[in-house]
Amino acid sequence: EVQLQASGGGLVQTGESLRLSCASIGFAFDGSPVNQYVIGWFRQAPGRGREGVACITYTDGRSNILDSVKGRFTISRDNAKNTVYLAMNSLKLDDTAVYYCAAARAIRYGDSSDYVAWGQGTQVTVSS
Predict the structure, then answer these.
(1) Would you state the pLDDT for residue 80?
(2) Cα 84 from Cα 42, distance rounded (Å)
(3) Running DSSP on this structure, what letter comes out for residue 46?
(4) CA pair distance 60, 79, nearest whole angstrom
(5) Which is nearest to 87 in space by CA: 67, 103, 71, 100?
(6) Which of 20, 42, 45, 110 is the most exposed place for a label (fewest CB within 10 A)?
(7) What is the rounded CA–CA span in Å between residue 16 and residue 4?
(8) What's the longest Cα–Cα distance across the chain?
(9) What is the dihedral of CA 19, 97, 77, 22, to 10 degrees?
(10) Is 23 exposed, middle or buried (0-12, 13-18, 19+ CB in 10 A)?
């Protein structure tokens, strides 16, 4: 199974930046290598549901990003390192959440149910 490791979170002040990393390795049950997957970033704030933030394909680099963070967050990938990054700029209090990365074989429904492997999450806390 694909394993993912999210890292890069921390405690920052509003307006500061963080870059999250999602390193992945391994193979899915069907034998698909990780570089054939879509990698997504999700976040979950206390008392709130899980929210999709951004996703990117390893194969062609196509990406999508949540409208509410567009212009501040950027998703990218380094295929050689099997790593996807989420650069977060101009952080706001509402960005505080646990951020998870996940892998999907394909996007079928456009929600978290597409994702078959999840990392442990990394805490992002934005303070004023």
Answers:
(1) 83
(2) 13
(3) T
(4) 10
(5) 71
(6) 110
(7) 26
(8) 46
(9) 90
(10) middle
Write out the chain's pLDDT in tens, 128 residues: 678 999 999 999 999 999 999 998 776 555 666 667 899 999 999 999 999 999 999 888 999 999 999 999 999 999 888 899 999 999 999 999 999 999 998 888 889 999 989 999 999 999 99
**Which element (helix H / strand E) includes 38?**
strand 38-44
Task: Report the run of H or E that residue 40 belongs to, with start and end.
Answer: strand 38-44
Residue 9 and residue 19 in contact, taking contact as beta carbons nearer than 8 Å: no
Q: To which residue do tokens 């099997």 refer?
A: 82
Which of 33, 46, 48, 49 lies closest to 111 in space, CA to CA?
49
Tracing tokens 């993912």 back to the chain, one arrives at 4
CB 64 within 8 A of CB 43: no
Residue 117 vs residues 5, 65, 123: alpha-carbon distances, Å: 11, 20, 18
Q: How many residues does this entry show for the chain?
A: 128
For residues 16 and 37, give the distance between their C-alpha atoms in angstroms, rounded to a whole number.
Answer: 30
